[in-house]
Amino acid sequence: MKLFNIDLKNLKALAVPALIAVTILVIIPFVILPLLRNVRETNNSLNNDRERLRNLSNKLGTLNSLDEAEINQKLSEANIALPAGKQVAPLVVGLQNLALGSNLAVDEISLTPGKVSTESAKAATASATAAQTQPAAPSGQLSKDSLILKLSLSGSVSSLEAFLEKLEMAKRISSIDSLAATDSEGSKFQILFQLSIPFRPVEFSSDDLAAEQIPALSADNERTLLLIDKFINFTDIQIQEGRTGVANPFGN
Amino acid sequence: MAQGINLLPQIAEDEAKKEVYKRKLNVSSIGALLGVSAILVGIFSYQLFLQTTRSRVEKESQRLEGEIVAQKEKEISQRALVDKLNQIQKTLDEEVPVSSAVANISNLAEESGAVKIENIDVNSDGDVSIGGVANNSASLSKLIKAIISERYTPKFNKVILSNLSNENKSSYKFVIDMTFIPRGLVAKDETF
User: Fold this and answer.
1) How far apart are alpha carbons B87 and B97 in whole angstroms?
2) CB B165 within 8 A of CB B149
3) Which of A65, A152, A201, B156 could form a disulfide with A107 if both were Cys (CB 3.0 to 4.6 A apart)?
4) How far apart, in whole angstroms, are the C-alpha atoms of residue B47 and residue A36?
């Protein structure tokens, strides 16, 4: 039978190959290509996971090789130079001792406490000689990770030199923001300092810390440790802190 | 003269050729289907292999993570130690050695003879301003020459006599601005 001059018998014979061709044409874009994409993604993820596993393995090796007692001992040394908190009281008393030991009279020590002023800081500031606490510095001067101290001293230039040398060789590190020495009477100078004393709280990273490599102590780090070990610890002072958060800090 | 044409054998030959083509087409299409199926099976198997490997790697990672977390304190201490030492080192390396600046100014005044330093200002950038009184112009000249001498050039630069006034007959009031160059609280060669 012929319909529109097409031989249906012949067409029937082509049905199987045509069906197969259609199936293949459907399978390639709708099955094989998505599958290949999946394979690629899984392969990438696997590579990342392998990289992470390598990092974890290296890190565990490093961790196992570290001596915790030694780290803690070095950290306590570094904490004297750069404590986690402000530790104002021993600092103020220590600075006062340092100045007095250099034959400088301490006229005033005032501090810009930052956002939180501790009771011990207030107590220490108040007890530091005939201190008259000045108003805090403008908020622009507040630093999140350093304490600003203003010192007013008096004495000779040689005493000032001695004090500066001790300060620069002190374990608790500080930066002199400004120094103004003015001749007041004879060879006596009125000296105004602004010291910036850094502290560094321990910070936690929000990233994948587990796979992050542990920084090793470099040769420079070791040298710094040895160096600060030789410095003078002027904040090694025990101060009885008052009770805080109570109406009567002197009561039982 | 009429010529006879025999069509029947020709038709049979065409039919036979068609059958061969049909068979070949069928075989090739089935072969293609089998090929595609084989590729599919291959991809599936590889995907399965990747997923199995991945899950094994993840399990191993979890085990290592557990061991690392167990030593968390040690890790935090080590990180804090390195961080602090880097910061300390940076401060020690970059600070202006103010004691050295003051000592040098003091030496300059002494070497110049009749010069009295009345005020010294130093800031964290190393900008230094000294003001004082020189009993005579020779002493002032000596002071300025000393500051710009070879001995002090590595220490002070950008020396500017920003103010000079004749106090009385011979003495001069002066202000000198300059920059103190050295950086670092501990000189590298004297570290150890």
Assistant:
1) 17
2) no
3) A152
4) 9
Question: Could you tell me the pTM of the whole model?
Answer: 0.74
> Which of A24, A45, A82 lies closest to B36 in CB terms?
A24
Tokens of B168: 């009385």
Residue appearing with tokens 């009567």: A248
With bands split at pLDDT 50, 70 and 90, how would you rate the model's confidence at B11? Answer: low
Interhelix angle A219-230/B72-94, nearest 10 degrees: 70
Q: Does A164 touch chain B (CB under 8 A)?
A: yes
CB of A14 less than 8 A from some CB of B: yes
Q: Does B91 contact A23 at a Cβ distance shorter than 8 Å?
A: no
Structure-token match 């920059």, residue found: B179
Residue A128: predicted pLDDT: 43
More confident residue, B4 or A167: A167
What string of DSSP letters covers A191-211?
Answer: EEEEEEEE-------SS-TTT
Q: How confident is the model at residue A146 (pLDDT cuts 50, 70, 90)?
A: confident
CB A167 within 8 A of CB B92: no
Q: Complex ipTM, two decimals? A: 0.74
- The closest alpha carbon to B133, from B153, B149, B112, B150, belongs to B112
Kindly write down the DSSP assignment for every residue of A71-111, as one continuous string.
HHHHHHHHHHHS-SS--HHHHHHHHHHHHHHTT-EEEEEEE
Q: Cβ of B137 under 8 Å from any chain A Cβ?
A: no
B47 touches chain A (CB under 8 A): yes
Q: Which of the four pLDDT bands, split at 50, 70 and 90, describes residue A113?
A: low
pLDDT score for A161: 93
B58 CA to chain A: closest CA distance, Å?
A: 7
Mean pLDDT of chain B: 88
Mark residue A155 as left, alpha or beta (left: phi above 0; alpha: psi -120 to 50; beta: remaining): left
